[in-house]
Structure formats: C-alpha cells, structure tokens
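BUG: 3D viewer hangs when loading the predicted structure for this chain

Environment: internal workstation, default settings.
Expected: structure renders.
Actual: progress bar stalls at 90%.

Input used:
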Amino acid sequence: MRTLYLFNMVTLDGYFEGPGKGQIDWHNVNAEFNTFAMDQLNATGMLLFGRVTYEGMASYWPTPTAIANDPEIAHAMNAIPKAVFSRTLDKADWSNTRLVKQDAPQTVAKLKQEPGKAIGLFGSADFAATLTAHALIDEYRLIVNPVVLGSGIPLFKQAHDRLSLKLLSVRPFNSGNVLLTYTPTKSNGHS
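Structure tokens produced before the viewer hung:
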C-alpha cells in the first residue's frame, strides 16, 4: 500500500497562502530546501492536486523560467505522473496528468492500493480537507516558515472535526524553516 502525504509550507500563524490569490512570496526557499524537495520528489511516484493548485503548478513548472531556475526540480515535477481532481476542468494539458472528475475519495483509495512509491498532495487545501474527512492522508508534512502574515488562507480552513496527530519527526533548516511530520492517530479511525 502506498503512503499518501500532504506537503505544504505554512506560516507561523497557520496560513498556506497570503491574502492575495496565490500569494506565496513569503516561502523561505534556498539550496537546503531544494535538496529536501528533490529527495521528497525522488521518493514520490505520483502527485495529486485540486484544480486551483494544479493550474498554478501547470502554469509554472513546464515554463523556460522554471526550467532555468530549478532544472532538476522542474524535470521531476514535469515527469512524475499526476492527477488533478476537478469537476470544472475540461482537460489537463500538463505532461503526465490525468483528469479525475468524480469519486475523488474512491479514486484516491484505489491509487493507494497500487504498488509504487508514495503519493504526494501539494497545496490543494480544499481537496486535502476532503481526503482528510475520508481518512486517506497518512502523513502531514508541514514546513513552518518563520513569518507571521496576520491574514491569509488557513491550511485547515475546512476542518470541521478534530484531527489528532502524532509527531513522527522534526527537521530544522538553516533558514529557520522547520519541517514537522505527523500521522493521524488511531483515535481518528486511521490505522
């Protein structure tokens, strides 16, 4: 069974995006982060996105700018199989991407049963909330950036029920970022 992990960068006050649409200029990224990102991508066999995150990623990673700035990461992002879950998109043009319009939790549950490397879910807070509600996320990997925005879009804005987590690991970065990795506890109905 494949592990499904959620990966996001968040602010100290819990936002994964600033108050403006797509505002992530506060992301604290350097060579150490890029090494971590490549290690994570190398251990990932598929990426999942909701529509909004997919559109942002698909408009950046295949571009000459992304390839020039981050060639190794761009290659991995473009090569890894991807699925975008959306009822409103008509097509998914980014390389190696399939569009899933219905039964997201059932589709993800089936993907997890396939052999292979881990499945990553980047961004996509609304989609993550759906998968969390269906107990499909095995790990929550959050990089806390040392910044307070004061407003923005919270990562867990759609959380209606308590989600108890067990800390698996802590990794500080020289930049001041801290990676916190959690797994849901058995009291949430997870194994």
